[in-house]
Specification:
Strand content of chain B: 15-25%
Oligomer: heterodimer
Largest interface: A-B, 27 and 28 residues
Structural class of chain A: mainly alpha
Shape of chain A: elongated
Strand order of the largest sheet of chain B: 14-26-25-24-15-22-23
Helix content of chain B: 40-55%
Number of helices of chain A: 2
Radius of gyration of chain A: 18 Å
Largest sheet of chain A: none
Chain lengths: 51, 714
């Protein structure tokens, strides 16, 4: 039972972190332009996010 | 450290709000275009910054408040891109719908995985306190998930029930709610079986189907928006003091004087007060021959000025124009389409009562057999979960999104899933003539008789003008890879033509004195000391038009023409295609014609492009429009196809019918799965483990079957 008390919170915590990260990325607009993102990586210019 | 240009510029303009305009740029195709546009635009005066959305082929430009749409378009043109301003009237951002669904899918997916982790431990033999703990943990995860991710279903089911109807969402909502409630009760009473995993998995699969459906609609809508021409975003207005200024279409008022250049579309109805020219009315009426106008003639918004600049006094703008009347007709006509019930909902009409009766009967049956209300209820819930239309909910959207993706690669944009379902059923096709069966633009037809020297001169002169005929000539000659020559003293006389000097000889392209006045458009190349060459233009049939009509006949679809054009112009096309035709139809007549065919029991496919086809497109059982169509036509049509060829009409119908075959197979498989699983559930043999296996298994089979459609468009 001791093992479970540690492992289950860890498992849930990791899952929740992933979920939170996904929500943040949606809110941040990372899914607004999937095709463009795939092409921008090929550009030569400076790598600075445009706000 | 230096500040970025975007930052410093916005800091300068901080006191005033920086207006943003959206442009559709269909021409961007590569990674280079993104940086070219973003960096190139930001360097031009008046523009603060630009941001490309490649997926939607759009550019958002932040600019100084005094920049007008044509100035911004010129900035795009400097970089070699054609840009179209997206007006405020266009519906741009309802993609938040799919975004919310995606969030719900993510939550359900997260919850499903974690609950499954706990459930596997229970199934592998956890007992006593451990099992209770795992059930409690599952409940803690499942309850908020069902409340959050189940909302789309609960809402839709409630709407249906409050209208005394039933749809797919009613059994889903009842199943999920009952399963969750009963599992909670089991957990509290230390029972062995909890169905939290089943309930959440059900939500996950169904939400995936719902999300796919919504993504498909978004993609098609973005594609169509990128094509919209926003035909007349505004006009150059001549002020009382002789100055000119650009006004957006919505700011035009009766009494203003617009200066309309050749090749420009009218933004409002009006009367010509100065100048003589001809107008192309094909988008408004379907009439292919240009109409001559002189002072006092009435002209309508949406028509194209062909020859010379004219001054037009606005008589009606905005919602008073002839176009707006057509829009009102369209709105009324589109009501018939909203009455269509999608195939999944039609299936649910039989499915939902059957499922609920079965669950109720098993409960009553086990009660009578003396099993006690707890066991009986558990079995009834197992029946509900097993029969919940998990595969059914995925069967239709999975097939439709796969085929819509395949069609999109072939240049056919499908607006929503129900369009595919309706298209599969059509058995009568009505075509508009101008712009639908034909290309809707003049094409030179006798270039074969010109010498290569003449062609070179024509190309050189045509390039110097923006007259529609010059552009048609230029495109045709560039297509033949004709060479240009160098000339000097190029001058364009509005309404007359272009002249230049070549090798010491006077050359000209344009109207000539001895041109015979005929219906056909023409322009003449004159070279001093040589016979003039008259270039004839005609509106040609689309490539593969004849083949398409024959292919449709093979599919059991009868074709016919509904045209607003004169009889003489229509008869020729009808003879070539060997189909019947009705000429001189007004928008209302086209609506009536569709109504007549519908009364005869036909499912009518309307294919049209012009404003005058708008109401008919909205009224047809299904409708298609070419990408060259008017904005109104594209908005009203279910399906928009790119390119000159007419072949996509037959391709789309074939693909839609294949989709229906796969959807039907999926339904049969789902029913077969139920035929096996339901008796087991009624006998009380289904545990949460079996339910989970059966559900995911049947969903996978259905999706795999739908993937076969990837090659449906050939």
């Amino acid at each position: 039972v001791n093992g479970l008390a540690i492992l289950i919170p860890i498992a849930l915590g990791l899952g929740l972190t992933g979920l939170a990260a996904f929500f943040w990325s949606i809110k941040d607009g990372q899914f607004d332009d999937p095709d463009g993102s795939a092409l921008r990586v090929l550009g030569d210019e400076e790598d600075r996010p445009i706000k | 450290m230096t500040a970025s240009p975007a930052l410093s510029a916005s800091a300068l303009a901080a006191p005033r709000a920086i207006p943003q305009s959206e442009f559709s740029v269909p021409g961007m195709r590569c990674a280079g275009c993104i940086s070219k546009l973003e960096n190139g635009l930001a360097l031009q005066s008046g523009i603060v910054s630009a941001r490309v959305n490649f997926t939607a082929k759009r550019v958002t430009v932040a600019h100084m408040p005094d920049m007008t749409a044509p100035q911004l378009q010129a900035a795009f043109a400097n970089l070699g891109f054609e840009a179209v301003a997206l007006g405020d009237g266009l519906q741009l951002g309802s993609s938040s719908d799919s975004r919310n669904l995606l969030k719900a899918v993510a939550v359900a997916g997260f919850a499903m995985m974690n609950i499954m982790l706990l459930s596997v431990s229970v199934w592998s033999g956890a007992t006593g306190v451990t099992r209770d703990l795992f059930h409690w943990l599952s409940a803690v995860i499942a309850l908020p998930t069902v409340a959050y991710a189940g909302r789309p279903f609960f809402k839709s089911a409630w709407t249906a029930l409050s209208h005394k109807r039933t749809n797919m969402d009613v059994p889903i909502s009842i199943g999920v709610t009952l399963a969750t409630a009963l599992s909670l009760f089991e957990t509290i009473t230390h029972g062995p079986h909890a169905y939290f995993d089943g309930a959440v998995m059900l939500l996950f699969f169904l939400l995936t189907g719902r999300w796919l459906d919504s993504v498909m609609r978004d993609r098609a809508r973005d594609g169509v928006t990128a094509l919209l021409k926003n035909t007349a975003p505004g006009a150059l207005v001549l002020g009382a003091d002789g100055t000119t200024s650009w006004r957006d279409a919505k700011d035009l008022e009766p009494g203003m004087v617009m200066i309309i250049a050749a090749g420009e579309r009218l933004a409002a109805d009006g009367t010509v007060i100065q100048g003589m020219t001809s107008f192309d009315l094909s988008l408004l009426t379907g009439e292919s021959a240009p109409q001559q106008v002189c002072p006092q003639s009435a002209v309508h918004a949406g028509t194209l000025n062909l020859d010379a600049p004219v001054h037009v006094r606005v008589t009606a703008a905005g919602s008073d124009t002839a176009i707006a009347d057509i829009a009102r007709l369209m709105e009324q006509a589109s009501q018939s389409k909203s009455r269509y019930v999608r195939i999944a909902d039609r299936a649910a009409r039989f499915y939902a009562p059957a499922v609920h009766t079965l669950a109720l009967l098993s409960f009553v049956g086990w009660m009578l057999a003396g099993a006690g209300w707890h066991t009986s209820l558990l079995i009834a819930v197992a029946v509900l979960i097993i029969t919940c239309p998990c595969a059914l909910g995925l069967a239709v959207p999975a097939a439709q999104i796969v085929v819509a993706g395949a069609l999109m690669r072939a240049g056919i944009l499908v607006k929503d899933g129900s369009a595919l379902e309706r298209l599969a059923e059509v058995d009568y096709a009505l075509f508009d003539k101008t712009g639908t069966l034909t290309l809707g633009r003049p094409e030179p037809i006798n270039l074969g008789r010109a010498t290569s020297d003449q062609k070179a001169l024509m190309l050189t002169l045509a390039r110097a003008s923006r007259h529609p005929l010059s552009e048609a000539l230029r495109k045709a000659l560039e297509g033949e890879a004709a060479d240009a020559v160098s000339v000097i003293d190029v001058a364009e006389l509005p309404g007359i033509g272009i002249s230049a000097v070549y090798n010491g000889k006077q050359v000209a392209l344009g109207r000539s004195e001895q041109t015979d006045i005929t219906d056909t458009l023409s322009t003449t190349l004159t070279v001093t000391g040589a016979a003039p060459f008259q270039i004839l233009f005609a509106d040609q049939l689309r490539p593969l038009a004849k083949d398409t009509v024959e292919a449709l006949a093979k599919l059991g679809v009868t074709s016919s023409i509904l045209s607003g054009d004169r009889e003489s112009a229509v008869a020729h096309i009808a003879r070539t295609l060997e189909i019947t035709a009705q000429p001189s139809m007004l928008p209302q007549d086209k609506l009536d014609a569709i109504g007549r065919q519908t009364k005869l029991g036909h499912k009518v496919l309307m294919v049209g492009d012009g404003l005058n086809d708008g109401p008919a497109l909205a009224a047809g059982y299904a409708s298609m429009a070419p990408a060259s169509a008017s904005d109104a036509g594209q908005n009203a049509a279910d399906i928009v196809f790119l390119g000159d060829s007419l072949a996509p009409v037959a391709t789309a119908i074939r693909a839609a019918r294949k989709t229906q075959v796969i959807v039907r197979q999926n339904f049969i498989m789902a029913i077969g799965y139920n035929a096996v699983a339901v008796p087991l559930a009624i006998l009380g043999l289904v545990t949460p483990l079996i339910a989970a296996l059966a559900m995911s298994g049947s969903s996978l089979i259905v999706v795999a079957n739908a993937l076969r459609l990837r090659s449906a468009v050939r």
